Amino acid sequence: MNKKIFKVCFDMKLDKTISIKKSKKNKCEMLDGNITFFSNEEDFLLIGIELSKHIGIDNYNVNLDSNYLFETETNDLNSNFLSFGDKVKKLYEGLMLGSWKYSGHKTMNNEDSEASLDKSNLAKSGLMEINLSFDLEKSLLEFNNSNTNEFNQTLRDAIYEMNLNPELKKNYLKECLEKITYEIDEVRKICECTNFARELVEMPSNFLTPSIFAEKAKKIEKESENKKLKITIIEEVSGGILEVSKGSLEKPKLIVCEYYGGEGEILGLVGKGVTFDSGGLSLKPAKSMEDMKTDMAGAANVLSIMKLLSDTNSKKNVVAVMPCVENMPSGSALKPGDVISAMSGQTIEVLNTDAEGRLILCDALWYIQEKLNAKTVIDFATLTGSVVVGLGELFAGLFSNDDFLSESLIKSGKRKSEFLCRLPLHKNYDKLIDSDIADMCNIQKPGSGAGSITAAQFLQRFVKKDTKWAHIDIAGTAYTSHKSMINLRKSTGFGVRLMFDFIQNI
Ligand SMILES: [Zn+2]
Questions:
Q1: Cα of 274 to ligand 1 centre, how many Å?
Q2: Which residues form the Cytosol aminopeptidase domain (predicted)?
Q3: CATH superfamily of 203-504
């Protein structure tokens, strides 16, 4: 695959309303003098600005007298008080996310490498790496030089308004530059991991079986410089994971990932990894069945988040469990009416083999609490079609037994434009999955509706009373029917940036 490297230098002035005009070659300039970018790929920068609007910069007005360029504390993306540093990061994030494209399987690579604001051209631009750098040494040299660039001038103006002695001011500039260099690098890692999740979701199921998924996980561990990341593949599985996989020639894998950064209680992440969901004997209609290669988006997210924690050398303690199976119909497949035992020992009457996600998640939930000691557990799953009916492709469904956890997740979602809508849990919904012959059914009683809620109620039956738990149903948001400015393909990586934000703020 071809990687293009772009060196991008940002020069940014604050305080004006944005308008964009292309100027001389190799340079594009914002009118009203507020933002100037220098690059030999001007179109990409314009695209970056456009894309950034879609992930949260709607308003470019900033009050310079807020003094601190990098310390504006706001969680409201529509606020007028995004700091200079936050803006640069957003622009970079826009570039990184918006220029991603699935590497694909074409044997001829005759794609146009030129990109422009024309989105169809952008889609052809191929994978690229954007290298945004600030030259710290040079910037410091220029600090006292009249021939300073706009970026330093902006910093200098701001710093001189501060009531500090000259030496402190100089140190402050150095700190600012170091901080933004570090933070930009972090944004790069976040975007790379988001794009990694997207790549996995786009992959055809013959290129991403449970075994290949497990190999990819092991590869991450092997290639990681951070030795705190440990990944174990469990081949001998039981419970729902074994039952769901019985119809397929592909062997199930339970992927267990542990990362102990040292700080705080253990957070557990669970991701649904159905690498292809035919529905099993309760076969899905042929129309759009190809999209069922994406039924592992939850596991893709969770693996990407774990990679990100390792890449950024996080100080948090996070464990993850990803049950990976293929759900297929065959002579050995699980049958409607069968009663199975979950790993926890609870029995389940399987009324529909297409409600298989919960049959593997319940084991993963049990495992992460019993074996890995997670006190808070968050699961990601493309679980129900009902959530798409209710919320479409903008909001994911959130279910939780804890108000504070729920609020924190919603806030992280807002910061990342990955929106969550909390839906209810209630004992009367729970009754809808009672069974006459087993502990529970895997779907609700006919005609009672509430498919997403009863799926969550099912999962809750495997959550201990003292475990804080949230279930995020990403069936509508992981793989969308249309492209958007920051998703030129259909897979979104929805949840990776949200979860990283959440973990950083625990
Ligand atoms: Zn299914």
A1: 8
A2: 352-359
A3: Zn peptidases (3.40.630.10)
Which amino acid type is present at position 18? I
| Type of residue numbered 477 | T
Question: pTM for the whole thing?
Answer: 0.81
**Which is higher by pLDDT, 490 or 155?**
490
CB 498 within 8 A of CB 413: yes
**What are residue 372's DSSP bridge partners?**
none
Per domain, the residue ranges of the chain are 4-186, 203-504
Q: What phi and psi values does residue 42 have, to the nearest 5 degrees?
A: -60, -35
Q: Enter the tokens of residue 362.
A: 């319940």
Q: Please give the angle made by the CA atoms of 255, 260 and 265, to the nearest 5 degrees.
A: 105
HEC sequence for 180-229: HHHHHHHHHHHHHHHHHHHHHHHCCCCCCCHHHHHHHHHHHHHHCCCCCE
Q: Which residues contact 141 (CB under 8 A, 6 or more apart)?
A: none
Kindly give the distance from the C-alpha atom of residue 107 to the centroid of ligand 1, in angstroms, as a whole number.
32
Active centre residues (catalytic): 284, 358
Q: 283 CA distance to ligand 1 centroid (A)? A: 9
- Cα separation of 75 and 77, whole Å? 6
The per-residue pLDDT for 31 is 31
Q: Let me know the angle formed at the C-alpha of 57 by 51 and 59, rounded to the nearest 5 degrees.
A: 130
Distance CA 57, CA 91 (A): 8
Ligand 1 center to 136 CA (angstroms): 52
Angle at 366 between CA 361 and CA 372, to 5 degrees: 115
Instruction: For residue 354, report the distance from its CA to the centre of ligand 1, in Å.
Output: 4
8-state DSSP, 248: S
The CA 397 to ligand 1 mean position distance, Å, reads 17
Ligand 1 centroid to Cα of residue 244, in Å, is 10
Spatial CA neighbour of 382 closest among 295, 301, 445:
295
- In this structure, are residues 324 and 254 in contact, taking their beta carbons and an 8 Å threshold? yes
Least trusted range by pLDDT, from 265-269, 420-424, 438-442, 488-492:
488-492
Q: Tell me the per-residue pLDDT of 287-321, one tens digit each, with 9 for 90 and over.
A: 989 999 999 999 999 999 999 999 999 999 999 99
Average pLDDT over all residues of the chain: 78
Say whether 221 sits in a helix, a strand or coil. Answer: helix
- pLDDT at residue 328 in the model: 98
Using left for φ > 0, alpha for ψ between -120 and 50, and beta otherwise, residue 463 falls in beta
Q: Please state, in angstroms and rounded to a whole number, the distance separating the CA atoms of residues 52 and 41.
A: 17
Cα–Cα distance measured from residue 433 to residue 341, given in angstroms and rounded to the nearest whole number? 16
Task: Look up residue 247 and give its two tokens.
Answer: 């119809």
User: How many angstroms separate the alpha carbon of residue 41 from the centre of ligand 1?
Assistant: 45
Mean pLDDT calculated for residue range 89-104:
72
Cα radius of gyration (the chain): 24
Task: Please give the pLDDT value at position 429.
Answer: 97
The strand pair at 395-400 and 35-39 is best described as unpaired
CA distance 82 to 107: 45
Q: 349 - beta bridge partners?
A: 339, 441
